[in-house]
Amino acid sequence: MIAHVEKDACIGCGLCPSICPEIFEMDEDGLAIAAKEQVPQELEDSAQEAAESCPTEAIILS
C-alpha cells in the first residue's frame, strides 16, 4: 500500500499523525505529509483509519 497526502486538500487538522504517526507527520507549513509512502502491512489498518478520518479526504491510499 502507498500513502499520499494531497497538499491542496489538507487543512492541517493533525488527525492523521495522531492516528498513524509511523506514516504521517506534519511538515513545516503545518500540513500533513506521508513521511513513509510505502505502508508496511502491519500498519495498513492504521493508515486506512487515518484516511477515513480525514475531514477533507486528502489522504490517498493505493
Describe the structure.
The protein is α+β, with helices and mostly antiparallel strands and 62 residues long. β2 and β3 (32-34) form a beta hairpin. The chain contains two helices and four strands. The protein has helices at residues 15-19, 44-53; strands spanning 3-5, 24-26, 32-34, 59-61. The relative contact order is 0.36. The protein is 24% helix and 19% strand.
Question: How many β-strand runs?
Answer: 4
- Tally of domains: 1
CATH class reads Alpha Beta
The value of Rg in angstroms is: 10 Å
What's the number of helices?
Answer: 2
User: Which residues form runs of ≥5 with pLDDT under 50?
Assistant: none
Task: Enumerate the strands of the largest sheet in spatial order, edge to edge or round the barrel.
Answer: 1-4
First-to-last CA distance: 5 Å
The general outline is: globular
Mind sketching the topology for me?
Blueprint: E1 3-5, H1 15-19, E2 24-26, E3 32-34, H2 44-53, E4 59-61
Antiparallel strand pairs: 1-4, 2-3
Concise description?
By secondary structure, the chain is of the alpha+beta class.
